[in-house]
Amino acid sequence: MTETASSSARGSRAKGTKGAKGGLRIERIHTTPGVHPYDEVNWELRDVVMTNWRDGSVNFEQRGVEFPDFWSVNAVNIVTSKYFRGAVGTPQRETGLKQLIDRIVKTYTKAGEDYGYFASPADAEIFEHELTYALLHQIFSFNSPVWFNVGTPQPQQVSACFILSVDDSMESILDWYKEEGMIFKGGSGAGLNLSRIRSSKELLSSGGNASGPVSFMRGADASAGTIKSGGATRRAAKMVVLDVDHPDVEDFIETKVKEEEKIRALRDAGFDMDLGGDDITSVQYQNANNSVRVNDEFMTAVENGTSFGLRARMTGEVIEQVDAKALFRKMAEAAWACADPGIQYDGVINHWHTCPESGRITASNPCSEYMHLDNTSCNLASLNLMKFLDDDGKGDQSFDAERFAKVVELVITAMDISICFADFPTQKIGENTRAYRQLGIGYANLGALLMATGHAYDSDGGRTLAASITSLMTGTAYRRSAELAAIVGPYDGYARNATAHKRVMKQHADANAAAPRTDDLDNAIWAAATEAWQDVLRLGEKNGFRNSQASVLAPTGTIGLAMSCDTTGVEPDLALVKFKKLVGGGSMQIVNGTVPQALRRLGYQEEQIEAIVAHIAEHGNVIDAPGLKTEHYEVFDCAMGERSISPMGHVRMMAAIQPWISGAISKTVNMPESATVEEIEEIYFEAWKMGVKALAIYRDNCKVGQPLSAKKKEEEKAEVTEKTEETIRAAVEKVIEYRPVRKRLPKGRPGITTSFTVGGAEGYMTANSYPDDGLGEVFLKMSKQGSTLAGMMDAFSIAVSVGLQYGVPLETYVSKFTNMRFEPAGMTDDADVRMAQSIVDYIFRRLALDFLPFETRSALGIHTAEERQRHLETGSYEPLEEEIDTESLAQSAPLAAVTAAPQAQPAPVPAPKTAHSSAELVEMQLGVSADAPLCFSCGTKMQRAGSCYICEGCGSTSGCS
């Protein structure tokens, strides 16, 4: 943070104490007078040792950390490794949860006292104890930057979400690069709208053509790819938005489609295009999520099949008319091909904007849940909904709306206090955030709550329950905001925007009054929400509001795991079976604890519940479960599996809760690989009709498949290449006649036998070499003798072996056969080759590692696990001079040579199948592919959390914190 920004921040803080009127009376919720929350739980010491299970390397180790005995192993591991401050092994290192919570809570309490929030020291003490209790018992969590920074000597940044701005000047564009880089350096993400930059179809003042925003995206993308996020190996998190009426919108839509074509072409040519590979940096626009901001005029034109005008940025005049439906189709085709761009609906976003007099909402943060003014930030906190479900264990349930509202009041108070002492990455962001005080309270575990209460995720009852909780949360948050305004004053920009702000509050209240009610579970929540919104209108008219925004629904990745939530954000459950780590090491597969709760709620007896749970444990789903009524199947529908929730079911849930979210909802609508462009068009169109603010789609495997529009180009390119090769071959044959000579192997030959597993398929490979001149034959053993697969492997082995003996270089085979993609594919049991796109891909990567010199295979992008680790540590794959074994550099020196006569191959022994995360467990049990990357830190399969990915093993995320 610059000195100027720091000075500005200090000046803003000084104003926080002015106008205090008595202070808040804080009510006890969970705590007991005279008893500290720490004294009410049992504490124990745990050893946290986190490894990369693929190569056994230790990623993190800290022994003897103190946690409550009810905290799960995963939660302990993630909080210790992610949030404890101080270097491991030094006296400054935090050693227990008490230190971590005290560091944060005491900072908040002191700031609350300093800035006049509390009526008395006794109220401050109650606030401290209640906040401690709620964090200790995983009732809610602040966003990650709070855990990282609050109470430490470093700048106390509390926000995870940032929105920047850029104008049509080179100075502003260069400022954009700098500001974005500083945010990435701190581990957070940012978004912005590029629509103010004039298009490539407009002129500069000097008379030449402008470059256009798409060209400037290249520079920002390169910067993000270099800085990455917080210095980690994952990509930086950023969002780039362009308005649909910008003349360069078609170029913007097609940026990633073209780059995906390039990725496939380079991969097929032998370049290392895997995530994190050496050559992926040559591909552009990969460090951002792209979204098109559509307005109601455009969507109406799509609906009516009329034309739509693209407008010059400098004059606002229409410079080109396009077919609205055709442009909408291009967006859907691009999303079908590579998942980008997403879509943001400008009309509904600004219809719910509380501060339109201060500027329009033009952009969002990278995950699309925070939407407000440019150059602002938002700090987040999320409540664990399952903590408010009262269940007697016999099927009688209720949601404790009263306690939920009290916790919302506590958390909102703490979040507002944080703005008083927080630091920000730029002066503009600091000034605007203090002037508008945007907050983002939200929740996690919605999917688990709906299932536990017997509601299908895609059902009227499920949507109504979710809507009632959301309305109560936001209504209570704004009520507390109005109460705070009476004590420490409304936000600085309120006077200018008072009419609009009160209009939006009335819209929320009207939506609450008109919402449908379904059963006894949600009726009580609606009643509490109605009372809250009535108070909002009354108190807001009298006091104004302390905060211009109150709620968002974030992905809750890392913090969701820290709270031991079964589901993140607004997402449904991943599957009915879970991967659970055990204290003292080991793991086990369990059926979700929400399943028995749901069955009791639906009226099943204990004997029936046992039988159904046993069926799920064996099959991973409820289909044909003994005694389970077919009409109850939908209650157990999940994100993956045979009964997965339909894409439109996700959209309907977003639409049901959007009227009571100040910002938006971070969610990606997953679609099967078979989904069509027309189905994507339908989702984008219906989401607009339903009042959703923004969404993105992801079609399974779209990142590795070619878009339809590229097929013809590839066929033409292949035809030209084939003709060129024939011409060269004919010319050479006229000059010299060449006939290869076969060089057979001797009777006794050195060889290596390797057992392998690829995607659950086991096999053996024997590679025999010449005593002095490299690989000479390969034998592959898979499946039973006489089977089609075994016959094809034998034939393939003979063909490759004969080619080797006729002088075909091994590197030629490696370059041709690696990266071939077909089933079986997936994880292997080889530490050097973690993932294989097919058996053939694995075989030739293994042969390259065993028989090719370092320089040759390195040029092909094939490295051992040790070499990849060395590259992470030193930036080079090459071994140190003292590590070089000159004898092993020769092709003729296999790693483990044996001289023996050919003998019968042993029967394959099935490799043990183990899972290391819930996503991997689902893949094994249901036979489906979880389309998600592997975690760079620990190697486990990640899973979706909103529009990001989260690693269940170590808590790492692929998006903003």
TrEMBL record:
Comp. bias (Low complexity): 1-11
Gene Ontology biological-process annotations: DNA biosynthetic process
Keywords noted in UniProt: Cobalamin, Cobalt, Disulfide bond, DNA synthesis, Nucleotide-binding, Oxidoreductase
Cited Pfam families: Ribonuc_red_2_N, Ribonuc_red_lgC, TSCPD
Presence of the UniProt keyword Cell membrane in the record: no
Catalyzed reactions: a 2'-deoxyribonucleoside 5'-diphosphate + [thioredoxin]-disulfide + H2O = a ribonucleoside 5'-diphosphate + [thioredoxin]-dithiol
Ribonucleotide reductase large subunit C-terminal domain span: 159-698
Superkingdom of origin organism: Bacteria
Domain TSCPD intervals: 749-849
Family, similarity comment: Belongs to the ribonucleoside diphosphate reductase class-2 family.
Role: Catalyzes the reduction of ribonucleotides to deoxyribonucleotides. May function to provide a pool of deoxyribonucleotide precursors for DNA repair during oxygen limitation and/or for immediate growth after restoration of oxygen.
Protein name: Vitamin B12-dependent ribonucleotide reductase
Organism the protein comes from: Streptomyces globosus
